[in-house]
Amino acid sequence: MKDLYHSQRLMRQMRRQAMQRGVVAILDVGTSKISCLVLRFDGQGPLSDDNSIGSMAGQSGFRVVGAATTRSRGIKFGEIRAMQETERAIRTALQAAQKMAELRVDHVIACFSGGAPRSYGLDGRIDLEDQVVTEAEVGRVLAACDVPEYGAGREVLHAQPVNFALDHRSGLGDPRGQRGQALAVDMHMLTVDADVIQNLAHCIKRCDLELAGIASASYAAGISSLVEDEQELGAACIDLGGGATGLSIFMKKHMIFADAVRIGGDHVTGDISMGLGIPAARAEWIKTMHGGVHATGMDDREMIEIGGDTGDWEHDRRRVSRAEVIGIMRPRVEEILEEVRARLDAAGFDHMPSQQIVLTGGGSQIPGLDGLASRILGHQVRLGRPLRVHGLPQSATGPGFSSVVGLSLFAAHPQDEWWDFAVPADRYSARSLRRAVKWFRDNW
């Protein structure tokens, strides 16, 4: 963990440099598309790097001055599989966003959805001897957390203090300046496959950019799609992407659990392509224009021209009913939701005081999905769109842009993480494992 600790601190320094220059690029590297925003900071709003344990508040201080999206290449399940193809796609999106902004960008903050994320709940406690809590004591209590044996080939992506307790007072957002006898902390740690992070960092370096931050796409989607009350009282954000479906659970304005299902909207498109014997591009158009998950009597009569250019007139003039398309799509959508439900159950989501679920991501736009999701997941479900941020083009306000918009908020108002504090260097132990789910059930 020590190497990653230093690399994360280095990225935080890069972010400060970007803030000083007043411009940074935001990059969502997805399976079906790569989205890029260029942010300009105006020096107003809470953009300083003074540690401020707590939530990302507001969205002042930056404006979107460039935006672009391009079809993703070389990525599967949210992970880079063909470096050169992904590099070309990132360059395409970045150059278009820079052209719109009329600015050159050197620093980028990126998010991704792959890496097989795993959540852990950690806790630590130190004695204070009736002294005032300072930043040094926060560093000490973070160092007192038992870091789990998370396995070789894994790296820590997020390590966030989500709750402090001073003596018998729990639920503190920031204990500094208060006096007590004992300080305790609960921390959420998210690990991912190391190769996924390293490949993304290498790809960005090949694009002549400095990596100033990296985050989970599920985390970013939750930041932008959950309203303040949902983040405070407890809610799950389900981000239906092209190659993967991300899941994040928030409480007390912090992410306390994350996971991913390696199935997404591209698999639905693939089923239509296979079922109807048509190219993937045509299947994607049919899914977008005529897709759904609930068939009615009307859908038996609504006919869709499949089209084609095979030269076989009979083949290219085929027509199918919308009900047939829905019949192909529904089983795969149900499979995705059943997988999500299994992960929510494993996370002990039923034990949370509030059980709101928000669907976002490009795949959430399938008509009738919220009703089907409510039935399968057994909770209240709503469709979520990203928060409006200054300067965001209308074309980037849909649910497919939740991660890139959330990453903008993350860039402007990063939550405190382990590496933001002076953690004693000799405390990188790896001892007992505690699953996040049991932890937040017990602690909240």
Short description:
With 444 residues, this protein is α+β, with helices and mostly antiparallel strands.
Sum up the structure in keywords.
444 residues; alpha+beta; five-stranded mixed sheet; 14 helices; 36% helix; globular
Topology of this protein?
Blueprint: H1 2-21, E1 23-29, E2 33-41, E3 62-71, E4 75-76, E5 79-80, H2 83-101, E6 107-112, E7 118-132, H3 135-143, E8 154-166, E9 169-172, E10 179-193, H4 194-206, E11 210-216, H5 217-225, H6 228-233, E12 235-240, E13 245-251, E14 254-261, H7 265-276, H8 280-290, H9 297-301, E15 303-305, H10 313-316, E16 319-321, H11 322-346, E17 356-360, H12 369-377, E18 381-383, H13 402-412, H14 436-443
Helix pairs in contact: 2-4, 5-13, 7-8, 7-11, 11-12
Structure description:
The chain is an alpha+beta fold. The protein has helices at residues 2-21, 83-101, 135-143, 194-206, 217-225, 228-233, 265-276, 280-290, 297-301, 313-316, 322-346, 369-377, 402-412, 436-443, and strands at residues 23-29, 33-41, 62-71, 75-76, 79-80, 107-112, 118-132, 154-166, 169-172, 179-193, 210-216, 235-240, 245-251, 254-261, 303-305, 319-321, 356-360, 381-383. It has a domain at 277-327. The chain is built from 14 helices and 18 strands. Strand 17, helix 12 and strand 18 form a beta-alpha-beta unit. Helix 2 packs across helix 4, helix 7 (265-276) packs across helix 8 and helix 11 packs parallel to helix 12. The longest helix is centred in the last third of the chain and has 25 residues, at 322-346. The two termini are 27 Å apart. The relative contact order is 0.18.
